[in-house]
Amino acid sequence: MTSSHLLAIIFDMDGILIDSEPTWQKAEFQTMRDLGLEISFDDTLQTTGLRIDQVVSYWYQRFPWDNYDNSEVAKQIVDQVVSYINKDGIAMTGVISALNYCRERDLKIGLATSSSHAIVDAVLNKLDISHYFNSIQSAEHLAYGKPHPEVYLNCALDLGVSPTECIAVEDSFNGLVAARAANMQTLAIPAPEQRLESKWIIAHQQLTDLTKLPEYLDGIRKF
Question: Which keywords has UniProt assigned to this entry (predicted)?
Answer without folding.
Answer: Hydrolase, Metal-binding
